[in-house]
Amino acid sequence: MALLDQLIDSAQAGVEERRQAVPIEELEERLAARDQDRPFSEALATPGISLICEFKRHSPSAGPIAPDRDLAAQVRAYEAGGAAALSVLTDRSNFGGGLEDLALARESSGLPILRKDFIVDPYQLTESAAAGADAVLLIATVLRDSRLDEFQAEAGQLDLDCLVEVHDDDDLARALESGAEVIGINNRNLDTGEVDVATTYELMPDVPTGTTVVSESGISQRDQLAELERIGVDGALIGESLMRSDDPETLVREFAAASDETTEHELP
11 and 128 in contact (C-beta within 8 Å)? Predict the structure, then answer.
């Protein structure tokens, strides 16, 4: 079985388990106590390339990354370093995360938070909002066209922004047809685990002007960020290099400085 199929099956099993433990009615009650949302899309609209800094303990492709890292300290470091938003992995069986990580990140930081998971059921959208997410990841290749449309509409009703992830021309065409306003170009092939930042360069010419674009995976150097900004990328999602760093605050600050330098260079 391909890696992506395994991840989807795992996500579906997790949804059913949580649905039995926490009925949708209970989640809807929790929504009433939700505090003010933090607009995720707006955080990506500032000059320069906005950094979405990720917390993940391990992954199927990389194995253990930072299994014992303190989440609260890590996200505070991201914020102090100049991150625009956070990404929190909540898949437990494959990435070692959980919804409790999402809640703790919200308590520990004032930044908008993306719930990064394999969203395969509408239950997860309500679950995301109730747990403190400001945005959710929707993977185009995972969702049929009708579901991609449906999930974006329902997310909007819950005041959740959507980062619609694509990896190839077909994904991109479907995402744009669905009306996606924020496109995440994943440089990682979810079937093979291979990463190539050239994927962003290949797809960018087909993205309409005015669409917000985030490049995901494989970004670990300042010069990569500068080049991505030059071709019109609005944001970069960075995780593994920050999780492996002994000083994530300084590394985020260095990444943010690369964007500042590019912006200043291009000003008339």
Answer: no
72 sits in which H/E element: helix 71-81
Give the global pTM.
0.93
CA-to-CA distance for 50 and 236, rounded, in angstroms? 6
Per-residue pLDDT band at 260 (split at 50, 70, 90)? low
Calpha distance 18→143 (Å, rounded): 21
Q: Chain centroid to CA 104: how far?
A: 17
**Residues for the chain: how many in total?**
268
> Residue 130: helix, strand or coil by DSSP?
helix
For residue 20, give both structure tokens. Answer: 């039995």
Q: Residue 113: in which H helix or E strand, if any?
A: strand 113-116
**Which tokens go with 137?**
């990841």
163 in helix, strand or coil?
Answer: strand
Contact 43, 213 (CB under 8 A): no
For residue 153, the tally of other CB atoms under 10 A from its CB is 12
The DSSP code for 82 is: T
pLDDT category at 192 given cuts 50, 70, 90 is: confident
What is the rounded distance in angstroms from the CA atom of residue 165 to the CA atom of residue 213?
Answer: 10
Q: Supply the residues annotated as catalytic.
A: 54, 56, 116, 165, 186, 216-217
In the chain the domains, ranked by start, together with CATH numbers, are: 3-266 (3.20.20.70)
Give 72-88 pLDDT, tens digit per residue. Answer: 999 999 999 999 999 99
3-state secondary structure of 19: helix
